[in-house]
Amino acid sequence: MVNINPLYEDVLAVTADYLGPAARRFVDRQIDSHLNKSPDELTKKDLKTLAAWSRVSMALLTNDKQLVSNYVSRLMNLANNEGV
Amino acid sequence: MLRRNMLIKIKPEQAYVLFGILALAYIALIFWMPTSSDALTRYDLAPLEARNLRLSIILPYIAIWFIACFGSVRLKNYSQAINKSRHGQSLSTIANGLFVLALGLPLRAIGNRLMSFVQDTQPQLAATSTIVFNYIDIIVGLVAVWLIYNGARSLLSIVDGKAKATPAYVVMIGMTLIGTSYVYLTFTNPVRQFPAAAGERAAYYLPDYLLLFTVVIPYLLIWYMGLYAAYFINLYKKSVQGIVYRKALTYFVSGVVFIVLSRATVRYMLSLNTIVEAWTLQYLLAIIYCLLVFIAIGYGFIAKGSEKLKKIEEV
Predict the structure, then answer these.
(1) The domain containing residue A10 runs over which residues?
(2) Which residue in B274, B114, B121, B108 sits closest to B191, CA to CA?
(3) Spatial separation of the C-alpha atoms in residues B148 and B143, rounded to whole Å
(4) Tens of pLDDT along B215-266?
(5) Is residue A1 part of a domain?
(6) pLDDT tens track of chain A, all 84 residues?
(7) B85 touching A, CB under 8 A?
(8) A61 contacts on B by Cβ (under 8 Å)
(9) Subunit contact A61:B246, Cβ cutoff 8 A
(10) What's the rounded Cα separation, in Å, for the pair B97 and B84?
(11) Are B26 and B109 a contacting pair, CB within 8 Å?
């Protein structure tokens, strides 16, 4: 099934800057585990929760706090529709 | 192009059991077979001294086999976690190649021991055993490096759309230096076809034309594919998207480079038959230890890199 949720694609684009080819699997896992949704059901209201959980997960992958904050900020900016 | 039959299916526990069996077999051979009289004479050792010396080498050597097995199994484990992606399939092929290389370590050690025994007890079989052993070594090396090369090429094609067709100058120069010196040293080796004296052994027991086409060219091919595989993987790391992902790849890339270069060096050193044997024992042991440590470091890096990459798939 082709996912055409533009918000989900934006989230993927941001995450890909950090996780590259693993981005889609990472985002799908966060959405499924913490939001109990499928990717095409993702809305802007979910972004705050998604960003919070993504911060926790990303912090497990890198010690660079600035990088993690940058990533979370960019996700939150999507809720404000400020682009990636 | 990758095909399903490039994927070797072996469970981690099966791999460790296999290596355990090979380790026990090797230790048994060390204690059961007498030390080569040629080696005892060359290094002025009593049989018990030679056996103790061999123990001091084989125990860390066996530890390195298990590190190598561990590293390749870890990479295989990670690749299977993402096996639906092209990355996963490419990495799986590389993992298979690294496993075959790792398997080559105990096989080479056992083969070497058996060959020494045969040459000591059945001198008329010295030529046959040397030729068979060399060919097995070449086949194992070719299979392993071919898998790693194809996996690396496939990995790079994901990020570029196609594998780099233009050779890197660094790899070309390196290959030229290694290749020409290896060919020169091989064909100027006075004991390449016939031993220097009775009771000693030749390096290959092959006429020059067979030596060229069945030994030298295959080894050049192994080094060519090995160096390019390391180059492709490094280029993949530089080209792939993802800051965190690239950092996780660092250990993996370093590991592959370490392994490819150290294995190539081992083979290169072994081709210097008369020169190596003329060195004193302490220098020979130092070189062997260094090369073994590099191989272990390489596989250790592979394991650590795989762990970091797998963690991305688990959080």
Answers:
(1) 6-79
(2) B274
(3) 9
(4) 999 999 998 999 889 889 988 998 899 999 999 899 998 998 888 888 878 7
(5) no
(6) 555 799 999 999 999 999 999 999 999 999 999 999 999 999 999 999 999 999 999 999 999 999 999 999 999 999 876 444
(7) yes
(8) 244, 248, 311-312, 315
(9) no
(10) 19
(11) yes
Cβ of B315 within 8 Å of Cβ of A57? The answer is yes
Helices and strands per DSSP (H, E), number in chain A: 4, 0
B154 Cα distance to chain centroid: 22
- Residues from A contacting B (CB-CB < 8 Å) are 16-23, 25-26, 29, 57-58, 60-62, 67
From the candidates B157, B244, B247, which should be mutated to test the interface with A, based on the most A CB atoms within 10 A? B244
pLDDT digits (tens, 9 = 90+) for B145-187: 999 999 999 999 888 645 454 567 877 888 888 889 889 888 9
When divided into structural domains, chain A yields a total of 1
Identify the CA nearest to B65 among candidates B7, B26, B94. Answer: B26
Interface check B158 vs A, CB under 8 A: yes
Q: How many domains, in total, are found in chain B?
A: 1
- Domain of residue B162 covers 10-312
Question: CB-based contact (8 Å) between B311 and chain A?
Answer: yes
Residues from chain A that touch B315, judged by Cβ atoms under 8 A, are 26, 29, 57-58, 60-61
